[in-house]
């Protein structure tokens, strides 16, 4: 009896097939976890190795046998035939309630009320405040606005006008702006420094030390990028473009340095750097025209 | 703590009850269905359909086999908890405002309304657990007629020895559980302030009443002595004693008819926690948009549920601060 007992012809066929996947391997690690290595074909037909580490935890709970028996009951009435688990139309979870019994709860409640009404801590105050960009009214800080380089803040016009008025030479344009109700084209208005130049004004200078990073992973985080680039010098701003719906990175980012020489060094070193399975491409940001 | 919101009813809640093991929660409202919920996750186990009017009251047998409900369609129905089938209907001349199983589950009392020339009564029905539960005695084994003031709520004392009833005029009376003879009557609450709820301690030696006169009273079942008084600033609809920690929970709020004219703040739609012994208010739990109609505490004292005029049931599983809270004297005693 040299032949192994399980020599099915169907199995032999399998082994002959060159496209067959290697069998799944399960190894038990020292720390009690299991490593499962399996192979599968991905959408492009390529063989993919999947390694999973699995930790099994057994949660043991002692319940009354009657209660355990009831757990097996089927649903009935309006719920008849519904799947196990709470359904969304009848069951929901409310907002968290802080309940701390206390002898003088009234005094505490009154105090909390007062603090809440007047000042409270800055953090509490800002807790439910939405961040709003002054440039594009998006939900990010103005400093992180993607249009920062191309547009001036919406309410900045007035302030700039004030400065312009103080400088004597632009009086004519200023006069136009302040004068009668007639229409003044944007390039003649106060604050528009000169003919043809864009309104961004002081927002342009950091272009010089801004890097454009492309081929950034979808899973990238601003903080990670900051950490990566901070090695070369002080980073004043990191902007990671994100999809509005999914909040995932769009694949490019802008990093502004305080110093242009740092930026140049970073550009040199980080171009071609492998980050999160992708290779970064770093170049100086071109001015949007 | 994060409350679980149960939105199974379309109208205001009338009563909610945990079963003895605390894994199930039953709720009845002015719509005509009874809902059964898993208390742990708020999943609805099922509904019991059959009543033709608002359901005022619900109770579940100690072994969680049968469920009794009393309704404005003048009937008490008995249901098979597991299957949702109605196994028995008892017809009464008037609406049934309260049902309660005796501690051993062998009897159910039903409080009927005084209306249309009928006096308010407390009827005791014998329950038979044999077979498919349909073989139940037709006639009540005992009938107590309230000649003075109608009973609004009633319950069984320890071992079913007494039937304790709260009345419309604010008095509490004690009847013998076997003969129905009235033994005692105490004007516990202010005259003409209806008693809206009466719930017993786990051992049924004392009970808590909630009244329209803005107070709740802890009374002894044996002699109806008033042990403690908890004063609130709003009419009370429900009051419960918490096991495990010595608290009581009171619920109430502006009468339903005045709700639209008051803001949620003034409406006082909060569950109030009092220390059972020291009678101090120790905290409140907000959440409902209407008065709290009913409160019931998990028999293990780990959670409580409240049902409101807003049609929601909120199940709160207590977290650590609740269990940790102690008076200085209690701590002192613990140290010794």
TrEMBL record, chain A:
The keyword Manganese does not apply. It is found in: Cytoplasm. Keywords: Cytoplasm, Initiation factor, Protein biosynthesis, RNA-binding. Residues 1-29, 156-180 are annotated as: Disordered. GO terms for cellular component: eukaryotic 43S preinitiation complex; eukaryotic 48S preinitiation complex; eukaryotic translation initiation factor 3 complex. The keyword RNA-binding applies. Its main location: cytoplasm. Pfam families: eIF3g, RRM_1. Residues 209-287 form the RRM domain. One of its GO terms (molecular function) is RNA binding. One of its GO terms (biological process) is formation of cytoplasmic translation initiation complex. RNA-binding component of the eukaryotic translation initiation factor 3 (eIF-3) complex, which is involved in protein synthesis of a specialized repertoire of mRNAs and, together with other initiation factors, stimulates binding of mRNA and methionyl-tRNAi to the 40S ribosome. The eIF-3 complex specifically targets and initiates translation of a subset of mRNAs involved in cell proliferation. This subunit can bind 18S rRNA. Belongs to the eIF-3 subunit G family. Component of the eukaryotic translation initiation factor 3 (eIF-3) complex. PANTHER family: EUKARYOTIC TRANSLATION INITIATION FACTOR 3 SUBUNIT G. This is Eukaryotic translation initiation factor 3 subunit G. It comes from Aspergillus mulundensis.
TrEMBL record, chain B:
Keywords: Cytoplasm, Initiation factor, Protein biosynthesis, Repeat, WD repeat. Gene3D superfamilies: YVTN repeat-like/Quinoprotein amine dehydrogenase (2.130.10.10). One of its GO terms (molecular function) is translation initiation factor activity. It comes from the Eukaryota. The keyword Plastid does not apply. It is found in: Cytoplasm. One of its GO terms (cellular component) is eukaryotic translation initiation factor 3 complex, eIF3m. GO terms for biological process: formation of cytoplasmic translation initiation complex. Pfam families: EIF3I. WD repeats lie at residues 6-37, 48-89. Belongs to the WD repeat STRAP family. Component of the eukaryotic translation initiation factor 3 (eIF-3) complex. HAMAP family: eIF3i. Component of the eukaryotic translation initiation factor 3 (eIF-3) complex, which is involved in protein synthesis of a specialized repertoire of mRNAs and, together with other initiation factors, stimulates binding of mRNA and methionyl-tRNAi to the 40S ribosome. The eIF-3 complex specifically targets and initiates translation of a subset of mRNAs involved in cell proliferation. This is Eukaryotic translation initiation factor 3 subunit I. It comes from Aspergillus mulundensis.
